């Protein structure tokens, strides 16, 4: 079936099957920043924005994107690079495999919450698992990015 | 003054991988690769009595279906270790015996995933089912023999008694344990259990391969061990190693898991059969179910000490569960003793002995820490117990007994321990955690108590006298350098660290170094990144190769200036005759070496292997808050003070440490590989196997106390593995100090603590 | 692998129900977190997108919550969360992560009667009604207790009766399934104590609830109520905990939730 939607600000028409998930559709079309880390909707690697909200693209059926706006890290390259530079300066990208989904959640957090507390930051990012960094370095980077004073 | 070594420079690949650029195995797959799927055994132990693939093979889009009848009958091991591997050759690509739930029964390749999965459903199999060996404590002498086959092969004697399900039987000792124990004023004995854990790298196992223009098999794989993978494939497929090329792109985490080559053999078999490219990506369930985990162990520790406060005896009796195949079985077990017996250096007798057994479960393999983690939990928990029995502060007991810099060291068979800052690590850690005020406990409310606990540990840096690494540094025609190594940066930043070292030696900037790793056709030999070897072993090869090149630059520069090499100096930009302005720029020199009459492109070379494996050390301190009503342990603060020798890149070393500590916290509190009574895995997803999330870990704080290791590059040792060892024993000690419940069986779940509290309250 | 033969997007609830009952292998698509984990071959997938069932509407005496409302909407709805001491937000907050809660839906969760469900536990402490395409409106309690029957859950209705409420769940890892959940509410002498993830599905501790309504609460009475609840409920074992441990936890969580509710007055 055909869907018409906005992808990274571009009007897009794609053919999808009814049981296809967005993560697979995006990868198939060359959006290779989309990573899948689990089969159970609980790692956060595949996070993209649907109508601006961070959502698991592995769990969102592609046909449901009809009329919606989808954003991947490719679509917010500059904003992502700004945070990525801070993350990389901390060394907290490590293997990098979870970074795109993580960055998309961090940017969403910045858009959604004004002046978040440390607790709110942790809560917002809990759905993004990372096995390399132990989260501390990511947290330092996020705080620097958001201008939250380090404890 | 160093310009780059010791600086927290960003990783050279950091921006690309952080922002999702295509760099990993699956991103690079060639067009039209067949999708490979595996039919797996639903039984823990069975023989295939009948298998019919006709329907599957006939399905449109299916290109190949392979069963045990279609693959070479050559036993091999998946363990990526230097040849001759100490792991037994005990598996076939496909076997008519299946030895765990998830063991491979058939390989299917089709044009797409759907077709491959549909074909799997069409394969008919009948099994003769045997009683599986599930509980590793019943494996020895179990009526079922996991490996009855006659053609199982060990490269050398590892103490295998396969009729009793024993893969490896070991005993190392020095001094007379029983006699020394009888002299001791304090003796403690306790049995500890460490559970199996899953590595849980975020990028699951995957590989694709194709035949190149010369008919060679090109394997692209997310592997820590490209050269070992090549050798393993050659053996298993009975083909010359020269016909195989293994390329490693960026890796999305490894943690030892990717030191066993779990998937390459299947794609290779398909491509050799069909001539077509093929890809296999394990999903998370397969990664949990059909790869390798940490070896679960039972470790009984006996410690003896005298009234002067010296630990005189360390005696450890172990049993290790290797599961269905013996990947890393003997070596992981050996390391459990090797990294614990020498830690305390006032001992008169030490012993480590026991068995590794086969069971009908997913094989165990390499996982960060590699036995030292298991051994450290047992030893350090016992030392905390001993301190209590002796009525001494556990930090003081350690300070008095640990191996110190300059001492003859049991770990080096009496050779001198050239570098250790462990005493300073302990002192600093005590201050950071607030030991003086907080030890052992403080009550914060009627129901909540805080406690602190500690542990120390050591690991190694590379494998002494076995693993060697080679490096090449080439001066390119345009005046920059290519550093060729075969080590495998799996996110650790080792490519960056090696570039820092090369740039430091050559006195050039980091962006003048192009790092190439790893491709077995191109890279110089390296066993790969494991055993905490890359910074220390490959690093030394890089330093020497760069020094070699620098010398050549001086020679060629001097020739051009028509003076002797002693009269010139190189500053990264120019070779200049000292005290004059006679000079040639590097760019010009590089150009002249490849164009015109000189005919000598400069390549610096080195192969390095170390006769010792110098230990990095950590002192770890945990502060927990225990809810007495529920048994819940909340980790508030973790302090790790690290001696990894010279810190080459403080940011990357810090993240390595924080990450390793958090994996250790996962092991201590949450992670548990569990099977049911029939051997079927229960913890097969992130839903059922909980690695720590952001809310689970409190604060982790890291500090470095540098020592200088004379055998290491710029004085460096290693940091990759040692970081995972202290959390379990330190947290267990903190819990004990808080509420008096001693957990000897990991993980420390609220229920165990609660039940312990109940028991204590009925006792008192 | 989850597969779909045909997709339908009905324009009326009646049509959705008709397709669900008439077609073999038909299934309603919620947020799909559970569906995708199975290997169900769905002949006809029914997508409710055209039925306007996504969102929370405030009425004079109730909240209407559409079946396709996501957990994140429950968590962040500024009006809903001024009621019941933010009970529903508290219940869904620990579940996995923001991007997950943007996906999973209320209708699927309640219809599936999951034993581990945080949300069902909380909803039961309120005056909640379930609206089904065929079954009509009924109390949540009645719905949970009736045997399985094909239907489409369309809405939940929660009465704005001003009750005070508190939620407690106990997990080891913070984003794991709960080992036990409790929700407690109190309104004008009517108490309700719900215990879920036993691991059986959530149920009301009837006697303890009655006592809660009756009593003037002090610490000792709260202990008695908690013990009563733990005594009257049935508990089972799973990977996450034994029945015995759950019973002990029940005392603690109920006491804590009751204490919170009592403090609200
Ligand atoms: C990894 C993971 C962890 C979780 N942890 C927790 C937790 O800690 N606590 C907790 O409470 N929950 C937890 N859940 C459950 C989650 O909160 C949802 O309840 C669950 O995913 C179902 O919602 P869904 O929208 O994804 O349903 P779907 O997967 O879409 O559907 C589930 C079932 O409901 C049917 N269905 C869907 N909509 C309707 C409808 N309107 N009418 C009738 N039938 C319908 C479907 O046909 C299907 O059979 C977890 C789930 C996952 C995957």
Kindly describe this structure:
The complex is a heterotrimer of chains A (151), B (764) and C (265). With 151 residues, chain A is of the alpha+beta class. Helix content of chain A is 36%, strand content 15%. Chain A has 5 helices and 5 strands, in the order E-E-H-E-E-E-H-H-H-H. Chain A has a 5-stranded mixed beta sheet, covered by helices on one side. The longest helix of chain A is centred in the middle third of the chain and has 14 residues. Chain A is globular and about 50 Å long. Chain B is an alpha+beta fold and 764 residues long. In chain C, the strands form 3 sheets. In chain C, strands 4-5-8-6-7 form a 5-stranded antiparallel beta sheet. In chain C, strands 9-10-11-12 form a 4-stranded antiparallel beta sheet, with helices on both faces. A 3-stranded parallel beta sheet of chain C has the order 1-3-2, with helices on one face. Flavin-adenine dinucleotide sits at the interface of chains C and A. Flavin-adenine dinucleotide (FAD) sits at the interface of chains C and A.
CATH architecture of the largest domain in chain B: Alpha-Beta Complex
The quaternary structure here is heterotrimer
CATH fold field value of the largest domain in chain C: Uridine Diphospho-n-acetylenolpyruvylglucosamine Reductase, domain 3
Could you tell me the strand content of chain C as a percent range? 15-25%
Physical arrangement of strands within the biggest beta sheet of chain C: 4-5-8-6-7
Poorly predicted segments of chain C? none
Taken from the alpha-carbon principal axes, the silhouette of chain C is globular
Low-confidence stretches of chain B are none
Tell me about the largest β-sheet of chain C.
Answer: 5 strands, antiparallel
Q: Major sheet of chain B, described briefly? A: 7 strands, mixed
